[in-house]
Amino acid sequence: MRILMNTHRVAGLAALLLAGFVPAAHALDPVDAIDPTIGTITTSASEACGKTFPGPATPFGLVQLSPDTITGGDNGSGYSAEMTTIEGFSFLHMSGVGCYGDFGNLQVIPETGALVTGRDEARSPFRKETEVAKAGYYGVTLDRYKVKAELTAAAHAGMLRFTFPASAESRIKVDLTRRIGAKSDSRSSSQWVRQVDTRTVEGWMRCDPSGGGWGCGPGPTYTVYFSMQFAKPVRAFGTWDGADVSRTLKQRAGTHTGFFVEFPTKAGEQIAVKSGISFVSIEGARANLVHDIPGWSFDAVRRQARAQWASAIRRARIDGGTDTQRRIFYTALYHTMLDPRSVSDVDGSYIGADHLPHKAKGFVYRTIFSGWDVFRADFPLQTIINPSLINDEVNSLLQITDFGGTLGLSRWELMGTDTETMVGDPGLNVICEAYLKGIRGYDVSKAYALARGVALGPNNQSNRNDFAHWTKLGYCADGNSLSETLENAYSDYALSRFASALGKTDDAQRLAKTAQNYRNIFSPDAGWFRGRNPDGSWMAEGAGCVESNPEQQGWFVPQDVPGLIGLVGGPDKFNARLNKLFENTPPDQIMRWNNFYNHSNEPVHQCAFMFTYAGAPWLTQKWSRYICENAYATGPGGLDGNDDVGQMSAWYVLASAGLYPVSPASGVYILGSPVFDKITLRLDPKYAKGKTFTISAANNSAQNVYVQSATLGGKPLTRAWITHEEIARGGMLALTMGPEPNKKWGVGELPK
Description:
With 752 residues, the chain is an alpha+beta fold. The protein is 26% helix and 22% strand. The protein has a 9-stranded antiparallel β-sheet with strand order 6-7-8-9-18-13-12-11-16. It has a 7-stranded antiparallel β-sheet with strand order 1-3-4-10-17-14-15, with no helix packed on it. Strand 6 (132-134) and strand 7 (137-142) form a beta hairpin.
């Protein structure tokens, strides 16, 4: 999902040099292959726009501490790699969001010399060659102040280390007003700060839609609490509110507030600052800091963050491939493990959608559910390697509805608020897939009831797009007719399978019927899908779509690909039309906003894997490998489309492993062409019978992209798909690759 479509791909050596990397001559350790600079272009209209951030975080951690180069506008990460000045380092960020973003709170910057309170006025130039970004670490030198800044993070706290020059006026300044997103003056609406002692400062920042933030629908209201400590006792403490600066007030409330601490420094003197963060209370922030960073060793916290990432990415281990491919893979895996993040304190306390404190029991409360994006590949990936995360998210979605955060189920959730961004029923999709894959650590009856209310109503229980027309006409008839109809039809299929599994036969049959509503917007005259008006007439050619066009959106019939094949005129015509989608998209256009295969946006993500349904798995092998090779790269331009909270990255993880879920709720994964010689997926024993599932690709190379034969568990496999149950049993899928298609393999038993 994105608002601005940025173009021009940055790839190859230029992108590597921009990232500060030189191609290595040996295989990288997995955690050292993580390159947080991939996708960090955010603002450039002429280049890629991944909107990721380069700073440190921990897997699914609350604190995501990173440099800021821009505030406001459609710059969700607050950082863009082509910019050459830094305004500070804030504790909370969003990765890859296609809208205006939010957070960016508690912004810290070191200064020397005279106090400069204005954010823009205090900016410092920096040189790209001084930037270092690794898993759990970021460093840069601020040329204006001659200060080296280093950042690392724990789950609920962050730490910065500043190496100062000799100065009688060294300072650490903290902006409590700053907030990213939407308006150029995006800010927290009110702030409060108090100096507790010579080492400790505590306070809060209250944020609501009046100050900017999200901007793509209803924005959240939240309060960020902090407890900050300084390694060196401060000589002086001061505050400001707007233009009013005070060096005597020890406590201050305001609407444009910040504070600073001052001390003299010797050349090369290092001063660390650490802060706990909580969305519940100052006491929670204090406890989070004591729990996560009790000491003052920056290097120890950095090592711990690196170790956490090393453990997290062992859930998917690759062998083979070039160092560039390994960087792309492990960074993609890293990006899928930033959200949905925990927003609970260390004791499980969190603020619910009712803005009241609660304590999670049996799950971790999470936020940032980019539903329209992540239900397609990111959450299916997590069902294999992080099923407990899926349990957490389902419980969080149920809580959000219970506490009044949305009607029905959240579509794009942020801090307990459904921002109503994009279309479809992704919350329903995720719940259905979870149950069908045996992930059931939540109130199943409640989950089904809420999902049923979305799909079948009554109206006061549903937030489905254009619910009235959908139920009356069998299709959506507002401005997004085509996109909404196809998305709704898939959700009804998913829910019909959930209902059937629960023995709710009547519901299952009713939903299976409405899952066929996609047929109601197929124009026999046009031979393809078109938006439709309430009176039954067809919309203008090209109308009715969200962030796509009919040629792209029309392929989204994952629940009934055989039915789509029939509408198009049979397998040959289906394959010919789908093949043209790719043939009309040159390699340098594949991640551009174009009229054919636009990989930078989600409605086409399943397309390369649909050939298998029409008996041509070799075309799936060809085009899935083509996308892996041409749509992803290293460096800031390595993600030419918004990462969309991990969806773009998850596509690569799965496709480069050689499989993809066209229809996640079906439990079927279509086999493609693995990029790597071997990938081992580590399974969770709570949800799987096996310990690992391995995909090997003998004779694999850049030329040998076609599957010649396969075995599963040592037995011949003649179909070009496997099931989630087969993955969960563990074992080995062994493929033999070759340079020419084997048009006899995988064509017998077609996916269901």
